[in-house]
Amino acid sequence: MTFVARASSNSARSIVTLTVNPALDISTSTSRVMSEHKLRCGPSRIDPGGGGVNVARTIHRLGGDVLAIYAAGGLTGATYRQLLEAEGVPTLAIPIAGTTRESFTIDETDSGEQFRFVLQGPELSEAEWTRCLTTVEAAIAPGGYVVASGSLPPGVPTDFYARVARLAHQHGARSIVDASGEALQAALAEGVYLVKASRRELSEFTGRELANEQKEVDAATELVARGAAELVALTLGQAGAVLASASGAIRLPVPRVRVQSVVGAGDGFLGAFVWRLSQGQRPEVAFRSAVAAGSATAAKPATDMCTRADVEALERLLPAATRY
Length: 324
Ligand SMILES: Nc1ncnc2c1ncn2[C@@H]1O[C@H](COP(=O)(O)OP(=O)(O)OP(=O)(O)O)[C@@H](O)[C@H]1O
Ligand SMILES: [Mg+2]
Description:
This protein is α/β, with parallel strands linked by helices. It has one domain: Ribokinase (UDP-N-acetylmuramoyl-L-alanine:D-glutamate ligase). Helices cover 39% and strands 27% of the residues. The protein contains eleven helices and 14 strands. It has a ten-stranded mixed sheet with strand order 5-4-1-8-9-10-11-12-13-14, sandwiched between helices. The protein has a four-stranded mixed sheet with strand order 3-2-6-7. β9, α6 and β10 form a beta-alpha-beta unit. The longest helix is centred in the C-terminal third of the chain and has 16 residues. The radius of gyration is 19 Å and the shape is globular. The N and C termini lie far apart (44 Å). The chain binds adenosine-5'-triphosphate (ATP) and magnesium ion. The site of adenosine-5'-triphosphate has 19 residues, from α9 and α10. Magnesium ion (MG) binds next to loops.
């Protein structure tokens, strides 16, 4: 396909996200989690969750142009689709024979602790995951962004995100990956534009503990030096985040918020980051919005994502970044 045909195709969007293992996120509360007893729960809430879809929901809320491509099947898949369409996010669902997974989060009200049960997800056939790749390829806009985020379900090869990144590059787009374990390793071996890793993910990847602030910065900077990513966004939960690039590393703390549910915080972070990049903002500027959006999402219940007003308000509370 030519440049012109691609840019004018119906499904071409400046940002495309891919979610091969979405989850219907069910969240509720109970006073205390105990064995054997029936745990009577409070009101429940269902959100269409999963990495790439949450990133797309965030971008859509912030006013960006995004297409969420995701695999879905079974009754949960049908519910998932309805919920996502009700939010008005432009989507392309790839039907699969298996049944979309559910994830279950319980807020323990006595302690304020949150318990998260994350299911494996249905097996995808080779035809199904290949269709995910060809669908993404057809939707890539040259000069745009392709975000691959979330776990890989059974059946999907560990180099899947590396293949997505390669397709993005072949078609003149920038690749963004948020993954863990072998999928992350393979993507970084391919080389990506931006990787978002949590402390746990970067620590596993480097085999180091990242025991202090300097070690966190060193690990992120090393990935850039190795050519694994042009930009490394290392998120550190309530300790804030680090951004490393060829021009050095910066750090921001989080604004003070009343945390309700950290589910989706990393996706809110990434959504705002890509949204700002797609507006032509510098990575340092996008990073500020990202930290604000991560915290704004943590201040929302369940997998509810942040709004533009939330992000703008929290951004103003952030200090100047620390430079290394
Ligand atoms: N307790 C918190 N208070 C304020 N902001 C938070 C908190 N937890 C997370 N955030 C915000 O969300 C961003 C991402 O959070 P985090 O580092 O936990 O990533 P994650 O991708 O959600 O983690 P993981 O993939 O390991 O579950 C942080 O950089 C921060 O901006
Ligand atoms: Mg994450």
